[in-house]
């Protein structure tokens, strides 16, 4: 059976991610990949897990996370463990964005310390995007958005009225520092949200705008 457009997109994205990691591993001992959560990346994770890479030299972390247990159904860490860190890719070092603290405000210092030990700048950030223009956990309705867009700290705790759980997000600064930026989106609603983002520059209205000049390679399929 022929692969669907979304499966083909995931394969192409995995090839691009593997090529970026290989290129950086040719000159550095370790390379860091930052991935997003949500539903879109699953076929990408599965395709990338099959890539031939020296996975023991690869570090993986998340662009953002819900403040939930790592085995919760909506944990981005769980998604990465179940779909990316499989087979040879299980040899990669994964750094989660949660701690044993009750809240992200209490845990953010520990998470930031863990993040600082990674091989920055990241080789590649694979961003996702919601229909509201959020990316990572940079949400338009988050009181912490201005901080997350301006701080040089690696991570910020956020509470967003539109979201059921508190979250932690990499800061825009830390995401910007990556050598390469890709946006992985599917469906007409996200194409429309991206089209709208391209018509203006208010990052507080549509936070994805903070990455439109990184440059940003857009991987989209219907
Ligand atoms: O909440 C989140 O949403 C975005 C997009 O998720 P999707 O399910 O529409 O693919 C994601 O990029 C982000 O990491 C996630 O935490």
From TrEMBL:
<dbReference type="GO" id="GO:0017057">
    <property type="term" value="F:6-phosphogluconolactonase activity"/>
</dbReference>
<keyword id="KW-0378">Hydrolase</keyword>
<dbReference type="GO" id="GO:0005975">
    <property type="term" value="P:carbohydrate metabolic process"/>
</dbReference>
<dbReference type="InterPro" id="IPR006148">
    <property type="entry name" value="Glc/Gal-6P_isomerase"/>
</dbReference>
<feature type="domain" description="Glucosamine/galactosamine-6-phosphate isomerase">
    <location>
        <begin position="6"/>
        <end position="212"/>
    </location>
</feature>
<dbReference type="Pfam" id="PF01182">
    <property type="entry name" value="Glucosamine_iso"/>
</dbReference>
<dbReference type="InterPro" id="IPR037171">
    <property type="entry name" value="NagB/RpiA_transferase-like"/>
</dbReference>
<dbReference type="InterPro" id="IPR005900">
    <property type="entry name" value="6-phosphogluconolactonase_DevB"/>
</dbReference>
<comment type="function">
    <text>Hydrolysis of 6-phosphogluconolactone to 6-phosphogluconate.</text>
</comment>
<comment type="pathway">
    <text>Carbohydrate degradation; pentose phosphate pathway; D-ribulose 5-phosphate from D-glucose 6-phosphate (oxidative stage): step 2/3.</text>
</comment>
<protein>
    <recommendedName>
        <fullName>6-phosphogluconolactonase</fullName>
        <ecNumber>3.1.1.31</ecNumber>
    </recommendedName>
</protein>
<comment type="similarity">
    <text>Belongs to the glucosamine/galactosamine-6-phosphate isomerase family. 6-phosphogluconolactonase subfamily.</text>
</comment>
<dbReference type="GO" id="GO:0006098">
    <property type="term" value="P:pentose-phosphate shunt"/>
</dbReference>
<dbReference type="InterPro" id="IPR039104">
    <property type="entry name" value="6PGL"/>
</dbReference>
